[in-house]
């Protein structure tokens, strides 16, 4: 994996958890708006909107650089629109990055992969 691909995947991983948190907070704010006088939906909506746009931009960049299959790209996009999907995307991307590091170290040491 080259540096630009690793960077694209890292950016997507780093924005996925905050995007998921903002989505959950937006849902809580929506419920509070309808049940109390508290209305933070405009603020949380803007925060979530910015994070979602960043997620989609980073997702497209990662898809292009990592040469994901259509199924993998679709999975990461679907995870972005589920309330807790960003947490699953972050964990999966972290595991993918760790596997790439292990494979890179094995290649450097001359260990044949199974």
Automatic annotation (TrEMBL):
Main location: membrane
Localization annotation: Cell membrane
Domain DUF3817: 9-95
Topology of the protein relative to the lipid bilayer: Multi-pass membrane protein
Superkingdom of origin organism: Bacteria
Keywords noted in UniProt: Cell membrane, Membrane, Transmembrane, Transmembrane helix
NCBIfam families recorded: integ_memb_HG (TIGR03954)
Name of the featured protein: DUF3817 domain-containing protein
Highest classification ranks of the organism: Bacteria, Bacillati, Actinomycetota, Actinomycetes, Kitasatosporales
